[in-house]
Amino acid sequence: MSHHDGDENAAASGAANVGATCAATVKLPDFWQHNPRPWFQHIEAQFQLRGITQDVTKYFHVVAALDASTTARAMALLEAPPVDGKYDALKTFLLQLFELSELEKADRLLSLNGLGDSKPSELMERMLAVLGAADPSFLFAHIFLRQLPVPVRTALASSPLPSSRDYRALAVEADRIFLANRQQFVHALLPPQHSFAPLGPPEDDLDTAAAVTARRQREDGWCYYHSRFGAKAKQCRQPCSFRAQGKARAGAH
What we know:
- The chain has 253 residues and is an all-alpha fold.
- It has 15 helices and no strands.
- Helix content is 65%, strand content 0%.
């Protein structure tokens, strides 16, 4: 064996050792039953960063990340995996098992209920996530437009974007119109100010009643109770001329 061949073998052995070390240290997150496709995107990025390319290594990493219920449902494949393409076979099985069906995707898109507190572009990303790898129907842009405020929808009616199938460009344009008119939308949604009127008499009325009572006390020499309640007062505080004035009126008659 030449010196050159020895160097090549040593380099290959070193690369294999590095790959084995990376494979031993990678720790995948637990499998996401409700988001299987994003989970595979995440772990394949980890495989790429750590130089993990061997099919069997990727396969066993995925198996180790499965929860008990998923493992039980995949037992037929796990007990007899194909000789080649183990990872791809397991990935295909899990996606078919946990991804939404076409009918479920359509139902979820049709049950959307407006923007909420999101921007149009945020809503679009959620819709595209539901769609996954499926091809959007001609109704997809229409469903998106139905969730937007009427002024935004009206402004986009003459745009070629809804029929262009460039959905992110459509969402960016919707963002621009929405943000330019956001203040108008907020004011339109606020209840009228009079709906916040306080219960009970206004403060001005209370101040007026107190002023009248004080004036009577000064002018007539009556106590607070007779100034406030007149002959119906059940208390009297001296000095008070109410009773004396009443007797004087009676004597005059």
